[in-house]
Every structure is written in C-alpha cells, then in structure tokens.
Amino acid sequence: MKFGQVSNPQEIDFTLPPTSPDTLKLLKKNKNKEAFAIYVGCAKWNKSDLKGFYPKGTKDELPYYSSQFNSIELNATFYNAPSKEQVETWKKKTPTDFKFFPKIPQSISHYSRLLNTDEKVKEFTDNIALFEEKLGMIFLQMHDNYKPKDMERLREFLSKFPKGLPLAVEVRNQEWFSKAETATAFYKLLEEFDITNVLVDTAGRRDLLHMRLTTPSAFIRYVGANDPSDYTRLDDWVMVIKQWREAGLQRLYFFIHQNIEVESPLLASYFIKKLNKELKLDLHIPGSDKLF
Asked: Could you report the per-residue pLDDT of 19-32, keeping only the tens digit for each?
C-alpha cells in the first residue's frame, strides 16, 4: 500500500490526536447495548505478499489465512467486482465466524465518481450479500481528488445504498477536514445514514486522522511504515481502543497494511497480544501455531 508512504518515518510525529468529544457522546449512548466484537485482519491473503506466513506446501491460501485471522479487508473487490460464484467460493472456504470487508469497486467510486451507478451498485451488493453472516462491512473509498463540493452527490449515493448492508466511507482529500464546518457537515451526513467513518492512520497523511466516530463501530485502516515505530504506534492504538471500549464502543474493525506487506501478520500478532492483555480478551494470535 503506497498511500501515505514516506521515506523518512523517523521524522514523522505519530502522536494520535485526542478523541473528539462527539465520539465519546456517541459511544455513551450505545454503552452496554451488545457484546463487544473485534475483527483484526490484513488487506490481502496472497502468498506472494505474505511471504513466510504460510506453511510450506500451502496451495490454497484462504483456508489457512482464515484459520489464523477472523477477517480480511477485501481490497481485491476494488479492482474486480466478484461474481456470485466467486463470493460463494470464498464463503465456503472460511470458518463460520470469519468476516469479509469488501471494498466497493473503483468503477463506482473512482471512474464514475458515484454518478449513474445504480445498476453497478445493485449488481455488486446483490453478489456481496451472498456472504450472508460472513459479511462484515462494505466500505467506499473515494479518490484523493473527490472534494466536499460534491457532498450532495455523496448524500444521494448514501440515501440509495441498500439499507440492510452495513457501509463505511473513507474520504481522502484534505478539504474534507481543513475547515471545521466542512468536517462537521461530513460527520453529520454519515450519522444521518448510520454510516461508519473510516479512520486512516498512515505516515504521510496525518491530516486524515481525526478520531471521530459516526457509529459505535471503529473501522481503522492502519498503515505501517516498515519501521520500529510501527509497534509503538500500535501500543497507542490499544490504549485508545481501551478508552473507547470503556465509553461504549461496540465493534472494532482493525486492518493492518504495510508498504512491504510481509510484515503485516507480525504486526497483527503483536497488536492482538496487546489487545488480549489490556482488554482481557482471548483472541487467537495469528501464527501462534508456528514461527513465521
């Protein structure tokens, strides 16, 4: 993942911003409503990206990946919308408690920029819905140059999105956050349609990280810098998540990326160990059955 990549991570201030008071208010309203659910995963399961993670001789990576992780941020669907048969195949290869978090195809978000996409959205969501209980949350990632001037277009898209399918949104242009009134309007729009705000923690785009939740779900896309600071950054996230959980957080979706993806499972294992300790959980630690 090249987005936000820098050549000098040692010079970046990775301090997490303070949690928005509006986030704490929202979480308080949902405190104790349901059991806490945590899903931690990588962005892809390809053996070529996660070298050394798979046991020798592994030919089909997904069954093993899903025995170690409980979720996947399904970036593959961004490039090619899956067929019904593909979704059914992925579903059958994974355990009952595994969840997929598919990204909306770029044909909708980037090429069409949300215009005249009703048929494409219907085809995609009809197919993705076949994940059934294994569907975690769909997410829409907009192009870097998609700006607040087109907020009403986003509103129309969200208003027509199938109500039974959970959705998260990630915007990347700095204008969404450079003015308080614009950022507030964006957050209110997401709250209006019960859409989760994607938080992005990456070295070169600290402006995207605002610690503002719009639902009781925290959808966090964490991009390591292949630097020792990756681990201390995760320590900081564990403490924030602990605070949010105490405030009323219901669901955590945390996906770990790396510019060199081979290290992603190592970071995930470290992160899950820390979560288990601080939140008194018993989540499976990827790779704990072997060294990788």
From this structure: 999 999 999 998 87
